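Example 3.2
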Amino acid sequence: MNPNTQRLHDLGQSLWLDNISRDMLTNATLARYITDLSVTGLTSNPTIFEKAIGSVTSYDRAIGELTRQGESGEDLFFALALQDLRQAADLFRPTHDATGGVDGWVSLEVSPLLADDTAKTIEAAARLHAAGARTNLFIKIPGTPAGIPAIEESIFAGVPINVTLLFSREHYGAAAEAYLRGIERRIAAGLDPKVESVASLFVSRWDVAVKEEVSPQYHNRLGIAIAMRTYKAYRDLLASARWQKLARAGAHPQRLLWGSTGTKDPAAPDTIYIEALAAPDTINTMPEKTLQAFADHGKVGAVMPVDGGDAEAVVAQFRREGVDDDTLAERLQREGADAFVKSWRALLSRISEKSSQLAKAGSR
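Structure, written as tokens:
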């Protein structure tokens, strides 16, 4: 077991991999990450699948078979993705069982085209979770204005949800409120309150967004400050009377997850966000390159302060530099949703091209 990743695991943080591919499953890379690097879960998104399916031939046979069965478009993609995610979920099932369902999850995102459609998001979440046929499959719903009510309804329906595209303490608060309402409604209806969820805060995109707007001394500091103030809100919620009542009824916390933790600035340490975001009862989902870097030379120092540390002072400094963090959070969420739509359309186009090519080759 790698000592660097084990230290994070021992302080109470889950290490998840922000990647999946068929090759990673067939060549046992993911299995090695589990046994050697303390990886206990996995996340995916449209961009990850676009890269995985578009750049290799390992999906061609499955695409050909599904095409012959009459599948196309989004249905074909979800069939492909669930083949991978079921296999990954089975690798994480021992962790899932050992932690009582708290850890050992994989994630699949609803179509990004539904980001502004509450009713269709609710329907898609239920359908995809049922099709996945794995208890440790999260369905990802964006924390957009239309996504928030879909999260509440999905939790009430018993669908485990990974809330994605959160960029601020306020975004997190809305996602947490939706989770709480869903659990409270389940309790009122006499249903099991144990419906798992995570809330995914994207970190590094803050620093990319402001790099050209602030002095060099402020580079790579805002994302961490936003995370610290969000961690305080998370800890305050877990200490609240409202949450304690739900916990006594048997509910599990909606855990806070750090996403977008790969370093985007070549001048910054490649493990900066992993080291700064070390905190108990959280998750850090890392790109492969970042996971490998931390395993090689990462260090675990002080854990994040539950009181937010100097986060508010740092945010105030950025405001003096002309950064409106509230406005920027909304912009980043819109840009994130748009980026996933772009990847989604590129992914479906690539699958369609492969389907046509394989069908022509098979008819010769």
